[in-house]
User: Which sequence fits this backbone?
């Protein structure tokens, strides 16, 4: 009845609304579904709390005069804001049904406008990508649009969390913006990210490579490190976004979210020490220790398939979000190499940007030696980990459970890097080198002259381990603040996190540091 006065005008609005919400038309929607993909609007519907989505720029169309380019309302991207589990977010989702979700001038303006809103409002930005990249018909204006987006990704970095979901092809310009965000989630067999597709690779390099091999979720999650998470399907991907958001604050000025926990902060685990094998060269799964100390054993692993010799991810301890960084003795004996250094450094910088304390668990024989690592730049990349720990001013707690040798002892959150509390299990071995390597250097002559070098080596190694490879020399010097019964690790860490929660620390004023990229 309230339409009575302006019936025609209201009817027009609903007509245009229907057109805009139809994307590229029924046929294209059908094609999208037949590829096993949801549409941009269906994805938004699943992600956001019911009835909270407010769309903006729904009636924007291309200004291109190219005769081949049909104009569609929305111009291939849906933008707006809403709530995820009660948390304000801004989001954009490329609409593949319109010109393959490609980005032209006006789509670029829409995304940039949305990013400006997110940054000014201090709310997370979520991007859902399903796009053929720069819209070829719009030439330089498409590139111009991407340039604007990259600029805003950079401005938002460290101010609001940025999360990207790859739910289809992400080609050309559509890959660099995700790469500049904090987390990339790729849907298995659906998300594809590449700078140039298989056809161009064939043309330019005469190489045959499949879409999946070149830019599929597995490739980016395990080899390139571009993807932080692999999702089984689009629903799983959206669940992962929701879970991730629950661990991180709205912006860099907010504290981490605090949750009520039913898990006793003083819970001890007498079995924890049994996870560590008697023989320090045997493998064990560090994730067992993480799960034992975390609230309700919950741990969200980031970069699970990439550089598996280090583990990074989120947990809650005493209800407070923490970032966990831990060596993984199951892979490369937990040694630090190029990829693990980059992986951990980036994670620490994320946590530091968003006030998330870091808990570090150490069991590492050192930086990985060898010509391959050296020639590929372990010095350059390995130093990133040192840099990241040093510049981080959030509360930092480190617990050495096993080996902590040489440079890797320093790099894994040692006291000198500004760590607030360093504790060690009685099983910790802190030394410049492992016993075997150490005695081959300091007892080279004795070993050469010995009639039974093998037995002598064993004997000297045992003497070295008994004398030096323990936490007490460091504890005597105050470099280790406490030697803790493994069973009591959880209360020790939670009480320390609590003590340092209001820590104030700063670094010299400067434009920015120059991390060794
Ligand atoms: C304009 C595009 C487009 C693009 C796809 N389309 N990509 N239109 N510009 N970049 C259109 C198609 O013409 C088609 O239109 C519709 O989208 C669906 O595409 P299909 O090819 O039918 O779909 P599919 O087989 O699923 O393949 C998807 C795809 C492929 C893998 C993304 O379309 C593709 O390779 N596109 C080109 C990718 C690319 O090279 N982009 C430019 C990158 S250069 P119709 O009307 O037939 O439905 C770049 C530079 C920026 O981005 C660099 C910044 C740093």
Assistant:
């Amino acid at each position: 009845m309230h339409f009575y006065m302006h019936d025609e005008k209201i009817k027009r609005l609903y007509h245009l609304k229907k057109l805009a919400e139809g994307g590229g038309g029924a046929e294209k929607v059908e094609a999208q579904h037949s590829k096993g993909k949801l549409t941009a609007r269906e994805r938004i519907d699943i992600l956001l709390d019911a009835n909270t989505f407010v769309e903006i720029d729904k009636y924007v169309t291309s200004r291109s005069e190219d005769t081949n380019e049909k104009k569609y309302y929305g111009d291939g991207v849906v933008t707006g804001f809403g709530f995820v589990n009660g948390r304000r977010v801004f989001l954009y989702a490329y609409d593949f049904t319109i010109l393959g979700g490609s980005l032209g001038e006006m789509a670029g303006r829409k995304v940039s406008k949305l990013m400006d809103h997110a940054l000014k409002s201090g709310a997370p930005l979520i991007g859902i990508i399903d796009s053929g990249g720069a819209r070829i018909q719009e030439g330089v204006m498409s590139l111009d649009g991407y340039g604007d987006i990259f600029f805003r990704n950079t401005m938002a970095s460290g101010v609001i969390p940025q999360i990207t979901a790859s739910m289809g092809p992400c080609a050309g310009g559509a890959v660099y913006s995700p790469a500049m965000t904090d987390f990339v989630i790729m849907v298995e067999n659906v998300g594809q990210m590449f700078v140039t597709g298989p056809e161009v690779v064939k043309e330019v390099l005469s190489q045959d490579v499949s879409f999946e091999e070149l830019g599929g979720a597995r490739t980016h999650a395990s080899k390139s490190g571009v993807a932080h998470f692999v999702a089984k399907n689009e629903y799983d991907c959206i669940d992962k976004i929701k879970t991730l958001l629950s661990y991180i604050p709205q912006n860099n000025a907010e504290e981490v979210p605090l949750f009520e926990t039913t898990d006793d902060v003083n819970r001890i685990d007498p079995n924890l020490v049994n996870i560590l094998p008697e023989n320090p060269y045997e493998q064990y799964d560090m994730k067992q220790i993480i799960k034992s100390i975390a609230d309700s054993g919950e741990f969200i692993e980031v970069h699970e398939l990439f550089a598996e010799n280090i583990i990074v991810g989120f947990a809650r301890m005493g209800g407070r979000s923490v970032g966990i960084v831990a060596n993984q003795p199951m892979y490369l004996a937990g040694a630090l190499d190029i990829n693990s250094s980059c992986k951990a450094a980036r994670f620490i910088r994320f946590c530091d940007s968003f006030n998330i304390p870091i808990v570090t668990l150490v069991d590492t024989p050192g930086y990985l030696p060898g010509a391959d690592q050296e020639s590929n730049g372990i010095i350059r990349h390995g130093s990133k980990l040192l840099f990241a720990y040093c510049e981080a001013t959030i509360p930092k707690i480190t617990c050495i459970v096993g080996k902590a040798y040489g440079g890797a002892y320093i790099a894994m959150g040692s006291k000198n890097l500004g760590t607030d509390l360093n504790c060690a299990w009685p099983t910790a071995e802190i030394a410049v080198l492992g016993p075997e390597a150490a005695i081959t250097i300091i007892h080279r002559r004795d070993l050469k002259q010995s009639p039974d070098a093998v037995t002598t080596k064993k004997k000297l190694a045992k003497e070295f381990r008994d004398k030096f490879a323990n936490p007490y020399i460091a504890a005597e010097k105050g470099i280790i603040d406490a030697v803790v019964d493994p069973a009591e690790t959880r209360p020790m860490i939670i009480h320390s996190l609590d003590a340092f929660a209001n820590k104030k620390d700063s670094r010299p004023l400067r434009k920015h540091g120059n991390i060794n990229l």
About this structure: The chain has a mean pLDDT of 94. The two ends are 64 Å apart (CA to CA).
